[in-house]
Amino acid sequence: MYASIIFCVLAVLLCLLDRNKPSRRFGGLEMAFITLMFFLSIRYGFGNDYEGYLNGFKEYTSYSFGLTEFENWASLQDRGEYGFVILNKLFQPVGFFGFIIFLSFFSLYALYRLIKTYVPTNWYWFAVFILAFNPSFLIIGIAGAIRQWIAVTIFIFTFEFIKKKKILFAILAMIIASTIHKTALAIIPFCLIPLLGVNKFSKLKSIIIILFIVLWFIIIPRIGYALFLPLFQSESMEYYTGYMAQDTGFSIFGISSLFVIGIPFLCFSLIKRMSYDMRLMCLIMLCSVFFIPMVSVNVMIGRLAWYFSIFSIIVYPNTMELLLYKKQRATVWITVSGLIVYYVYLFIRHFLDPIWYDTSYHFHTIFEQPWQ
The whole model's pTM is what? Predict the structure, then answer.
């Protein structure tokens, strides 16, 4: 835990070097991501799924099917996600550690590119703080749920297609992502968001969206299991049923709801003042609220929120910048301070949780092992 804290705090502090300075080719943000890259690249046995991915890599690379023999590769994976199996095979020459280093770079580069493009330099530190200290992103997501985070990263890159209304390209990208993690198929309808008239937001439309989300948030934990029962028939999905929110870092109701729902709504309330790209990201982020309450039904469905909530690293800092422009400094101070306390609490709680303690509390590196 202490190593994780040191790397994450260092990344945030490095971003402070960019405050009150124009964007530059190499500065604190770049050093912050190099720090996080080093942290993720040298980890060994970190997270509950690491051993499973390591053993899977050894198994998948032991076969010699042709890369286009999709059915054979699919037979090696419980859910037929042959894309991930083939990806393992492609990285056989550099070993599992090389595979992890590449995936760490792939995910972090997508996030770096987003922050560099859309976040004001004064708020780099806040964007990196959310990424590093919200355990759902860096620790559980990128470092742990490797397969799904590849799909999430593809969706992040797909934003360029979505904002330009190249819907077919976006859908194709998510179909490819689904060969790595099938949850990507559920994201395809959300590629149509630009067709909803992002530039036109009447008060009535905004009120209807908010009321619908609130109603959804209240109802799903009560009737969700019966409503989505057909989805839980397979053995792989039954494992997650009733798992509740033990690995999500929040409860459905209570003080955390102020952050899980309240902050996205605060961002949404300022959507008219946002640029087109930022409006689109705000709506995408708001979609996470639809999936968050479903962790009480099935944690895997709740994890669909990752595809959308990751955009909070962009939308939150920009919302704070808008509030400063409106001279609402007290709101900014309360919101930022609250989020810092909340995410630090979730971060520490994650490492002390019995579910994660054995594989996350003590940080081991690849230097302790022969190259695999």
Answer: 0.87
**Residue appearing with tokens 């835990």:** 1
* Surface-to-core class of residue 127, CB atoms within 10 Å of its CB (0-12 exposed, 13-18 middle, 19+ buried): buried
Ranges of residues in the chain with a pLDDT under 70 are 67-68, 70, 73-74, 77-80, 201-202, 217, 220-258, 292-302
pLDDT of residue 347: 92
For residue 300, the model assigns a pLDDT of: 65
Say if residues 295 and 244 touch (Cβ distance below 8 Å).
Answer: yes
* DSSP-H helix ranges across 61-145: 70-74, 82-90, 95-118, 124-133
Phi, psi of 248 (to 5 degrees): -100, -20
Taking the C-alpha atoms of residue 365 and residue 39, their distance in angstroms, rounded to an integer, is 9
End-to-end Cα separation, the chain, in angstroms: 24
Beta-ladder partners of 365: 43
- Distance CA(217)–CA(227), nearest Å, equals 14
Give the pLDDT confidence score for residue 225 in this predicted structure: 56
Interatomic CA distance for residues 323 and 36, integer angstroms: 29
Tokens representing residue 88 in the block: 């393992």
Instruction: Name which of 359, 267, 351 is nearest 313 in CA terms.
Output: 267
Task: Fill in the DSSP letter of residue 26.
Answer: S
Q: Which of 117, 148, 160 is nearest to 318 (CA)?
A: 117
How confident is the model over 246-273, as pLDDT tens digits? 444 344 445 666 677 778 888 888 888 8
* Strand segments (E) across the chain: 43-44, 364-365
pLDDT tens per residue, range 169-203:
999 999 999 989 888 888 898 999 888 777 776 67
Cα 326 to chain center, whole Å? Answer: 30
Tell me the C-alpha to C-alpha distance, in Å, between residue 236 and each of 72, 97, 139, 230, 239: 20, 27, 23, 13, 6
- 76 Cβ contact partners less than 8 Å away, ≥ 6 residues apart: 59, 60, 63, 82, 85
**Cα angle: 96, vertex 98, 101; to 5 degrees:** 110
